[in-house]
Amino acid sequence: QEFKRPMFDIKVDLDEISLNINRDQYLDLLDLFEFQDYLSIKSKYIKYQIKNDIEKKSSRKKWKFAYEAIVNEDIRPRFDCYKWKNIKTHLDRRREYRSIYIQDLLGKVTAEQKQRAQELEKKLDVFNLTYVRCAAEIEVKKKKEQEPNTWWGGVSNWWSGNKPQDDPSLDLQKVMSSDEKNKLYDAIGYEGDDISISNYPEEYIDIDLGIQLNLLEVNVWSKINENDAQFRVIARASIPDTNLQFKRRPVRSAMAVSLNLGSFQVFGIATDPNESEFSNQSRPVLARPVSRLSSPTSKVEKKLLEVEYETNPIDKLADFRIKVISQSLEIKYNAPTINKLSECFEQDTQRNLQGVKQAAYSTYTDVKHRSYILMKHNIENIKVLDIYLDLQSSYFLLPENGIYQDDVAVMCMDFGHLIFKRNDQGDQVTSLKEAKDIEEAREKSYTKFKLKLENVQLIYANRNESWEKVRQEKDTRLHLIKPLELDLDLEKCIYTDDANLPAWKVAGNLPNVDLRLSDKRLFQIINHMESIPLPKSKNSTIVVPSMESESSSLQSSLNNTEQTLQAVEGITP
């Protein structure tokens, strides 16, 4: 009753999750995907297989099967679209569905007609369904407007207590759109029909979910040598101390999600063959966080990654709030580990995974389009966005011979420190109302953001030269690209329906780009790159014969549609 405890308080503690995969399991997965692809193709073409024994020669059976499959799946469906019989059937379906939908709008549809409408909806595409429904709604609206309002009909409606269905003044749902109703509710302070949360305080949290994972490991197993009898761990990724929090406030439909990663480390192949597979003492470190103490005097380390996402914050200074803080990450190239991983995930034979590739590509495009539409919708509708991104400098080390050791030549690519944040603070709506004139109002109609990228640099250090000291300096002879900075000022208009105001304003500043490269340093870099052993493929490359001449002749034969149609219909049994 005092709203001090959430309705659902869930805490989940997981000690360790270990994921393992080896080369045999990877190849089995590829075989499974290939088998599923074969099954889907077989289910599509099995109906064209000749089951009788009229044809005794297997070659004739195969050619007839191929002919039937190609003609019925690829050629005939294209030509069927232009046959009058199919066109008439399609038009009849549209007319029938339109008449049933009109009866449904008038409230005179029967159960048999509803069932028939469901059958027609499966045969018609989305475009035709939308077009037919819109046309039917317009026709019904015109019919209702043309119907005379008789004295007896008004008396009968008054006596029975029924309201005319075509009277818009009596139906708020039809008169006003959802956006108009929301604006009206906001103006009068109405929160909707749900009175179950009307007594909740605004800061009350009804759902509090927490998940704690102490350790997440991913291990890749493989044989170091072909004659080895046992598998060994060739790569290990470790993520300790992962925390996920989800909280919801029901009054304003607000939620807050936070994700924290304590650390992230990647280990390679152990240099000591007698070491235990669960130990990382002799393993090279491919990725690790740089020292991230919260303060010089404190021994408490910061989290590697902190992500916070909140909608309708309680301070009401923004509609959405995003905060991402990442610490520096050191990434090293280790040739034995990379080459072994490439060998582990290399296919042993040429597999036909076209169906899997198409499914993966369709899923990728679907997710990409959905994400783009959602992001575009959010950007257009979010009035005030409070964002803060702080990504500390991460760098990549490419050592000579592909193995990092002390006193070896190293190429260091520093990706720089990125900061992206909202530049103005405070209540933007209140600030907009306090504008004195139209120019000041236009100036305050924008949410301002600041992007700053600094210390992007490229260093090449020879043997006995410290790249770590050079990385902290601004100008040395070891810099191939001196530290550069980029400043961007972005402004987003909070009004999307005003054509006089630009939606975005962008202003940037790149002071200078200083490149330094001598002929001696160029040859050193070339020798450095040639010293790194690259992955080698054990399987010979399968050369697919070119079918350009056949495809070009086939394309020329398909230029005349009428001749092709007559030829196909003439050879069709």
How would you explain this protein's 3D organization?
The protein has 573 residues and is of the alpha+beta class. Among the domains are: 84-147, no CATH class; 382-537, no CATH class. It is built from 16 helices and 16 strands. Strands 3-4-7-8-10-13-14-12-11-9-6-5 form a 12-stranded mixed beta barrel. Helix 3 (84-106) packs across helix 4 and helix 3 crosses helix 5 (126-146). Residues 551-573 are annotated as: Disordered. This is Chorein N-terminal domain-containing protein. It holds the Pfam family VPS13_N. One of its GO terms (biological process) is protein targeting to vacuole.
What is the topology?
Blueprint (H helix, E strand, L loop, with lengths): L7 E15 H23 L12 H23 L3 H23 L4 H13 L2 H21 L4 H10 L11 H4 L2 H11 L18 E16 L9 E18 L4 E8 L3 E3 L17 E5 L15 E7 L8 E7 L2 E4 L2 H10 L9 H28 L3 E7 L3 E5 L10 E5 L2 E6 L5 H6 L4 H6 L2 E16 L5 H5 L7 E15 L10 E6 L9 H12 L17 H10 L3 H11 L2
Parallel strand pairs: 1-2, 8-10, 9-11
Antiparallel strand pairs: 2-3, 3-4, 3-5, 4-7, 5-6, 6-9, 7-8, 10-13, 11-12, 12-14, 13-14, 14-15, 15-16
Helix pairs in contact: 3-4, 3-5
